[in-house]
Amino acid sequence: MKLMRALVVAVVLSGLAFVGCVKSTTQDTPETGATADSADTTAAEDAAVPVDVTQADDMAGTAETDSASDAGSSDSALGAEVQTGTTVRPWIDTHAHPTGIHNECGDAACLDTVIAIMDAHGLKKAILMHPPAGWNGLDEASEALVREVVEMRPDRFFLGAGGNVLNARIQKAGDSEQEATDMEAVFIATANELVAGGGVVVFGETTSCHLSYEDAHPFEQVPTDSKLYRTLVDLAATHDVAVDIHIDVAVETQDIPPFFDDHSNNNPDQIQANIGDFEALLAHNRAARVVLAHVGRDTTGDMTASLMEELLVANTNLYLQIHPVHGPLQSPTSIVDEEGDIRPEWLTLLQDHSDRFVMGSDHFLTGGDDDDKAFFRIQHFLRELPEAVAYEIGCENPVAIYKLSSGCE
Q1: Less CB within 10 Å around the terminal CB: N or C of the chain?
Q2: Is residue 29 part of a domain?
């Protein structure tokens, strides 16, 4: 099924705007948007095709580029398809951000607008979390903002915790066993305090390899089986919560792709192999439910359906969070093609392991058109799946994996 080329006005959404939504640049520090995980940017989308407007969700909410705007007609057509189709499929977003480098959606007016957009695209609930803070980005107030947002609308949002205060410490310890040992007591106390505050369903967003999309956004890399990561999965198992981990996957040590070399001076010349370390972390505690974020979005050339199948078969405690975009590399192995349609090898994987997948927009909420485009994309993706598979991935799996108190009902 190819995206509609005609521009059709999505009547249901025509009244939604930025009214009452506060957009701010108060988070304009590398730590608060350490992952730039939803910048809805399409700098790499040079062709006027349906563009992955959220391909750089990891740009911590950076503004859309001109190329993203150029692709707006394609996203509008997709939106019209969703609105006029026979059935809008329900789903739960397991990865979204209320704050980032370039934006913040932290008041009732903005959230009301976001929820109206969610309703138009079948999005019943969302797990909100802080993007992964860099080693020098520890900010307890920024972490607390996520909880405050969730508590404003607990009927629609669940809490992911630690993207700032836990991930910053993981990054600071790096591969130093001694520094991790020195920090471990505070790290454990911090995680326990987050859980004691109530409502935590996942520790995240964390990262062991996060490429930088812009100079305001740091590059992050630590061994995936570092001491504090091992401690984190042990804590997750103890508290019966999941772990969300962002890894720009590299089967072997490789040069930085030109896209990232061009877009940020923070990226090194190479990224280290990380799949072996990741499997070691998974094996460390099989009782921990570990969710690999942004699966299907290829940032290195190694995000393939065959690699994901190998990981699923070998690791029973691994779950995959789908982010259905073609960018940033326009890779032939990304989960969707340039039209936004699911590639055959990925469709087979989704059907064969349907109980191991969830959806994650990796979107930075704004209360505006960016939200609309991000949710359009996932609704289209779900409509390409068999109905039963779409419901399992969109609704049932999030409840089971994150132990949510409510689902799509």
Answers
A1: C
A2: no
